[in-house]
Specification:
Length: 138
C-alpha cells in the first residue's frame, strides 16, 4: 500500500472525539478529528488522524505532541510552511509530506499563503492511552 492509499484509508475512517486543549489552536486554524483506531498488530498503539484547515494567513502556535507520537503530515491542498525542532523552515505544497519524530517541537506550522486556504492531514501513531495529542509550547 502506498502513502497516498494509506492517507486515503485513514481519511475514510469514522469521526471520533479527541481531547485537545483549547490553547493548542491558533488564529485561522480549524482542527477536525478524522479517525482513531487501535493498531491490531502493535499492542498499546493507535492510529489517529486529524485534518487541519488553515485560513489564508492562518497559523498554529508552536506545539509539541504526546511523547509517544510519531506524526506523518500530508499537505492535501495549498502550501504549508513548517519547521520541526531546529531543522530548516520549509514550504510544503499539495502532495508533499513530512514527519515529526516523538518528542519533537513543531515550531512553525502555518499557511504559506495570505490569499488561499491550505489543508493538512496529520496522522499520529501513539500510545493508545495518550488522550491529549497536542500541547502548546510555553
Amino acid at each position: 500500500m502506498n502513502i497516498r492509499s494509506f492517507a486515503s484509508a485513514a481519511c475514510a475512517g469514522m469521526i471520533f472525539s479527541i481531547a485537545m486543549p483549547a490553547g493548542a489552536h491558533g488564529a485561522g486554524e480549524a482542527v477536525t478529528p478524522n479517525f482513531r483506531h487501535a493498531i491490531p498488530n502493535i499492542p498499546g498503539k493507535s492510529l489517529t488522524s486529524v485534518v487541519v484547515d488553515y485560513a489564508p494567513g492562518g497559523a498554529s502556535p508552536a506545539h509539541e505532541h504526546a511523547k509517544s507520537a510519531f506524526i506523518y503530515a500530508y499537505v492535501v491542498s495549498g502550501a504549508i510552511e513548517s519547521q520541526v525542532d531546529d531543522g530548516p523552515k520549509r514550504i510544503y505544497h499539495a502532495g508533499e509530506s513530512f514527519f515529526e519524530a516523538p518528542g519533537a517541537i513543531h515550531r512553525i506550522s502555518r499557511n504559506a499563503s495570505d490569499t488561499e486556504p491550505a489543508k493538512l492531514l496529520a496522522i499520529f501513531v501513539a500510545d493508545s492511552n495518550d488522550k491529549i495529542l497536542t500541547t502548546p509550547v510555553k
